[in-house]
Amino acid sequence: MNDAATDALALLREDLRDFAGYRSARCERAAGSAWLNANEAAHANASDAEGRLRRYPPRESEALQSALAALYGIPPAHLLIGRGSDEAIDLIVRAFCRPGLDAVLVTPPVFGMYAVCARLQRAPLVEVPLREHAGEFEVDLDHVAACAERERVRVVFLCSPGNPAGGMLAAADLRALARRLARRAMLVLDEAYIEYADSASMLECGALESNLLVLRTLSKAHALAAARIGCAIGDPGVIAALRRCQAPYPLPEPSARCALAALAPAVLTATRRRIAETRAERTRLARELARTPGVRHVHASQANFLLVRFDDADAALARLLAAGVVVRDVRAMPRLGDAVRITIGTPVENDAVLDALRARTEAA
User: Is the pTM of this model over 0.90?
Assistant: First the structure.
């Protein structure tokens, strides 16, 4: 293990550095024909004709581990699969933050689960709000680093593309920040929407620093939100430590099977085509919304959604709901009192958004 990896592992909670975790019966790899070590039912459920669900699943599907590693261009040992990115976020906070002592840094307005997991761990929350420049939100990385150095920050969460802001962070800037935080904090980069972006993933920009973790998911571009498949990617020593903190049997067998099928070459080709269609619709919807009366500003987006500001957000939401269109009300988030987030749907759904928002003007 190199010095950098050792430094990253030193950021773990001291009481977890030698933690072995739970060793389930399924981890015993002894050969046998009668498996009576896990207190499973002797017979399959009547609804499960093939008996696929009678046994506990492997801790990790080796086939899915290999398929995801190939998709992301990394060795399998650098990847932890969990129940969506949400589980990875929770594991990271619990593994690195001592309750009441080690802080989590976030950049609001941003995805709320980072703060939720911090609260559940009793980790202090440090906020570095996004700054506005030329009408768009951006992360003040110098301020992030300064706050992490000044406060007792152990985990920094950044989102690229941002949610709900939609902007990207440059790989070179992220690498510089990770190096500045070395021996001090883990930098976690959430790339849930990266497939929709013009820029490459951090995983395509060279080896990761040992204190940098990247989160990926099959929930968004791969259209498997209900399967709950997400990944943490990083230094293999850090990944192994997170795995020891993970609950047993993290992947239900039907979810693992579904995810593996979604990574077949023909399915990936279809997924990439759908991503291209979504990107084209994002461009069209942003252009048309900007021409719509009552829309104050449409933020540039590299994700599958648009953050839209209105002269009268109450009225806009009412018209959308009256037309049966449900969008995300983000007005409770900092500095977004006039905004909603609109997911890019099908062309028909996107036209419904435009029709609803333009209906009052046309009627007048």
Answer: yes
| Digitized pLDDT (tens) for each residue of the chain, 364 residues in all | 566 677 899 999 999 999 988 888 777 766 788 888 889 999 999 999 899 899 888 878 899 999 999 999 999 999 999 999 999 999 999 999 999 999 999 999 999 999 999 999 999 999 999 999 999 999 999 999 999 999 999 999 999 999 999 999 999 999 999 999 999 999 999 999 999 999 999 999 999 999 999 999 999 999 999 999 999 999 999 999 999 999 988 999 999 999 999 999 999 999 999 999 999 999 999 999 999 999 999 999 999 999 999 999 999 999 999 999 999 999 999 999 999 999 999 999 999 999 999 986 554 4
Q: Which CATH superfamily is domain 267-363 in?
A: Aspartate Aminotransferase, domain 1 (3.90.1150.10)
- Strand-pairing partners, residue 155, are 104, 186
Out of 1.10.1740.10, 3.90.370.10, 3.40.640.10, 3.30.360.10, the CATH code matching 3-19+57-263 is 3.40.640.10
Using DSSP's 3-state secondary structure scheme, residue 188 falls into strand
Amino acid present at 143: H
- Measured CA angle at 153 (ends 150, 156), to 5 deg: 120
> Partners of 347 in the beta sheet?
none
Alpha carbon distance 332, 319 (integer Å) = 19
